[in-house]
Amino acid sequence: MCQYNYIELMNNAIAGFSKLSKDEKINWIATNYFTNSTETVAIIKQYWNSDVALQKLHDEFIENTISNFYLPMGIAPNFLINGNYYTIPMVIEESSVVAAAAKSAKFWSTRGGFKATVLNTEKIGQVHFLFCGESVKLQLFFEKIKKNLLASTEHITKNMQQRGGGILSVELKDKTSELQQYYQLHVTFDTKDSMGANFINSCLEQLAKSLKKEAQDFVGFTSEEKEITIVMSILSNYVPNCVVRAEVSCKVEELVEKKIDNPQEFAEKFVQAVRIAEIEPFRAVTHNKGIMNGIDSVVLATGNDFRAIEAGVHAYASRKGSYSSLSHAKIEDGIFTFWLEVPLALGTVGGLTTLHPLVKVALEILGRPTAKELMQVVAVTGLAQNFAALRSLTTTGIQEGHMKMHLNNILNQYKATFEERKAIAAYFVNETVSHASVVALIENLRK
């Protein structure tokens, strides 16, 4: 058995895969991993774009491309943000997310809308290095050469400075209490409308080179101290000072609607649900996941890096030592207020924003926003999604709406006919949808 597994693994290994043509890559995958290679090739190729130039563009986004993996792009209208209406593009595969966001938008559009404020836009990068001498000596050296370090980056920062951005500060941080000989150059940036990853990393690598050269030339160091070891230079996706606040508020009695006939009771229960997420990590993770349903979908639609956003947001949710809710709620003097503060390092120029045709469409729908405006839109979408989820949880329960939206996916999975769909839709008008009950009904109809 062991010998068989080893031979099978060897058969699936390949040298020089990246040098194969696209068709050769597909054929290798189909032959080695599927019994029906012809069908597999057809599935992979059916998602190719018929526009050759557009397909070439997609192929060059990443390496070893074999096809396109499509996600639905939906629209949530009626978002009243800071007095202006927005129609928000959302890219996501999960049922009910777009509908819930749109429903929240409509709800709050008649109650004053969303307010959003960018609190700060600082981004962070670090040069991580080792120094074998005394901390005091390194600090004196740093103060002496700090201006030279900044001057060495001017050829990189010139254009950014003309747009009002650039390097805001450089600090030396002593981390030797946590790791022997470990120090940082902790650098803050403002990258204006670009996410700025390449800009930040280029600046950091230049600072690292200059730091090493300055150390070599510094007469106050011994020969051993001159040999500063640069470990790495890289931006951080944790941006606790690149934060936006989004909020909604209204009189408690104005919360009344079809499913909220007792607004005071609803508001109190809603606030308690948020407080539970503030103190209970098991609940907070799912609570924040709902917020990220909204945030990630707009981040994806606008060509930004949702993995970076996710990592930074969840670190921010843990900044006080325990994982907690990103959103908060209160009732004060008869006013219900619901808000969140979230770190979002976003861009509206550079990267996919200028390459992906649908990203251009999304940004056009949003009115060609600045990075700050996009931060506000994204935060508001997260808050809207969270409000919709909590409203369902504290009233009818999450499954009633979600499973009705999910019903279509189940019907597609079982290839339901038009007549079957009609019968099933009629049956579930007053019944709770579950996967098991839908499957049972399909099987019954087919008998």
- Content-based structural category: alpha+beta
Beta-strand percentage range: 15-25%
Shape descriptor reads: globular
Q: Major β-sheet, in short?
A: 4 strands, antiparallel
Provide structural commentary:
This protein has helices at about 1-10, 20-35, 35-45, 50-60, 95-110, 135-150, 155-160, 195-215, 265-280, 280-300, 305-315, 355-365, 370-395, 400-415, 420-425, 435-445; strands spanning about 75-80, 85-90, 115-120, 125-130, 165-175, 180-190, 230-235, 245-250, 325-330, 335-345. The chain has about 450 residues and is α+β, with helices and mostly antiparallel strands. The strands form three sheets. The chain has a four-stranded antiparallel sheet. Strands 5-6-4-7 form a four-stranded antiparallel sheet. Strand 1 and strand 2 (about 85-90) form a beta hairpin. The two termini are about 45 Å apart. The mean pLDDT is about 95.
Set out the fold topology.
Layout: H1 2-11, H2 22-33, H3 37-46, H4 52-59, E1 73-81, E2 84-91, H5 97-109, E3 115-118, E4 123-130, H6 135-151, H7 154-162, E5 166-174, E6 182-190, H8 197-217, E7 229-236, E8 243-251, H9 263-279, H10 281-301, H11 306-317, E9 327-332, E10 335-343, H12 357-365, H13 371-393, H14 398-413, H15 418-427, H16 435-446
Antiparallel strand pairs: 1-2, 3-8, 4-6, 4-7, 5-6, 8-10, 9-10
Helix pairs in contact: 2-3, 5-13, 6-8, 9-10, 10-11, 10-13, 13-14
